[in-house]
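*** Protein under study ***
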Amino acid sequence: MANIVKLKHLEHLEDEVLNYGSEGCFAIVKFLTELKNMIGKKSTGGFLQTKWDGAPSVVCGVHPITGGFFVGTKSVFNKKDPKICFTPGDIDSMYENELNKKLKDCLKYFSQLGITGVIQGDLLYTNDKKTQRINDEELVVFRPNTITYGIPTDHPIGQKVNRSKIGVVFHTNYAGGPDLADMSARPRVDISKFNSVDDVAVISNDTQVQQVSFTKTEEQTFNRYIQKINRMCEISAKFHDYIVENSGTTGDAKFFVGSYLKPFFNNEIKEARTINNVDATLKSFAEFYKTKMDKEINSVKTAAAQTKKREFLYTGVKYLEDHQNEFKAFVALYQTIQEAKLFIIQKLDSLEQFRTFVEIDGGYKVTTPEGYVLHQDGDMVKLVNRIEFSKNNFTIEKNWKK
């Protein structure tokens, strides 16, 4: 939800309650309303971008101080020891293995595009694309990370990809200064200003949301989701704020039961478990918290330290028991937000022209796109089918090493 300075991590829509409490909850309502208006073709100030599962994330452009063209990963923004590469020799001294080769290709080809500022994007392929027939369709295929992409060879973009030696999706530009570490992220890159270079396929990630619409029944269903979530936000606002105010990753806050909600939900996604029953999910959360705290207790050797952590566990379990209804309401809210998000994602997925697969047992299984990024008033949040994509991300072996 927050305006970000460097594009290093985007949050899932439903996690904004855990990040910002009641403010995050009402922001979710605002985001969902924005999506409804977009699909309803009403005038909005927001826009959507399609997430491509590219890797690595590359930052490049004209250095604000030296004026030289550079490439690198997100580490170019480090205050201390930034890894900024102006020459192949710089890349050799800072990066190894496959990342070394890919960044050299980025330096060689992206420097021909006429980039005037600093931009960031996701690399799609270098010399690892191929033409393949899948499901009786001739596709140009590449797999930058978890998802394998297939573009029909007779599609204009497929033809462009076939001719090229490197492919990329640029999604973020940077402004400010004086140095890279002082710059701030802004969404979108105007790729129409780039030089036309046959060796480089720059693919747009703007989601053509104006090409999809709700049926009357779908709009009524989505309106009910928004109204329900808004009511839940109002009822539980104080509880949401208490959870956020007392959670943390350091000090005593690290052991507060609320600090384990996001790790718990992430683990549920990793195990491909959805929220089907609020009571069962809350029971699983209590067990998750106890298991994590038992590990913390066993990690210290002195009796005094163990006693202190047992007290944290006792306090956490008691708080959970004393506020069962509030926790159940939170789980129900989280579930409802996920349902509303998936409702929208399914509409947006129908827009995608390209094929997406995961490689399994030497073959291909059709999957959904990675997801979308909603931009509104300078804020960004991602919309991802987490069970589908995150499960693949955790289980499908990556095909290149950093």
